[in-house]
């Protein structure tokens, strides 16, 4: 995975394609497209912290927002701060800042690392609901006969 990410960034789309095809249906990335779903041998793991670098390179190079979103909302959301199903793939100290940077790059949210996202989403919904209530109240006000005098001069 890491080498395919490097090949991808170097401009060879075969590396990009290999990383893209290594993402399973639940969003989890695997060490290879042939290993999706756990077709592993012996003590082989499906993914390792080193493989994350290849995925980051691919997502940053291709700006693949769909793959990032599927990874964050699928696999990582169900496993917590783990990149794969193996306990050895837990987040390190630099992983959340990197995922935040990738989220900004692809214009997505990184809800796995920031518990504030839930509070921000709720706040944004509240603000949108209040704005709608305000707009509805203004619209009802302007339906009152003689209320034209209340309208700003620019909209009369």
Number of helices: 6
Q: Tell me about the biggest sheet? A: none
Form type: elongated
Overall pLDDT = 84
From the N-terminal CA to the C-terminal CA, the straight-line distance is 62 Å
The helix-and-strand class reads mainly alpha
Gyration radius over CA: 23 Å
Blueprint (SSEs and pairs):
Layout: H1 2-9, H2 13-21, H3 49-62, H4 65-79, H5 95-105, H6 116-141
Helix pairs in contact: 1-2, 1-3, 2-3
Please describe what this structure looks like.
It is a single chain. This protein has 156 residues and is mostly helical. It has helices spanning 2-9, 13-21, 49-62, 65-79, 95-105, 116-141. It has six helices and no strands. Helix 2 packs across helix 3 (49-62).
What's the gist of this structure?
The protein has about 160 residues and is mainly α. The chain has helices at about 1-10, 15-20, 50-60, 65-80, 95-105, 115-140.
What are the key terms here?
mainly alpha; 156 residues; single chain; elongated; 6 helices
